[in-house]
Write a structure and sequence with these properties.
single chain, 3 helices, 37% helix
Length: 121
Amino acid sequence: MHAASACAPPTRRAVLRTAFTAAVLAGTAAALAPVLRARRPRQTVTPAPLAEETYRGRHISVSAAGVRIDGRPLHVMQRADGSYLSGINHFQSFATPLELARAAVDELGTTQLALAAPHHG
């Protein structure tokens, strides 16, 4: 009797059960895919400097994160006209952050920038 039932066409109930099971599995996989992707460790990339040079013996680095002189942050502000100024030389504007950093090096001389930027009260 088993041999005869193995060759019989599938019943409507068996076809619907198989389709329902496949739909549940596909829906579960679609719902879990973003969660499983988020658990993978992401590769973090440090943005490359836009400009980097040695000017008068000081290392200047300009990146999306800001301007650094000898590894120390220089507080830079962009004006409405697109020019830049800093607390070192705040009476003069510069066309690019690199020009601003060079002027700050000229103004600083051998003095180092503070490690932390001053907080405004």
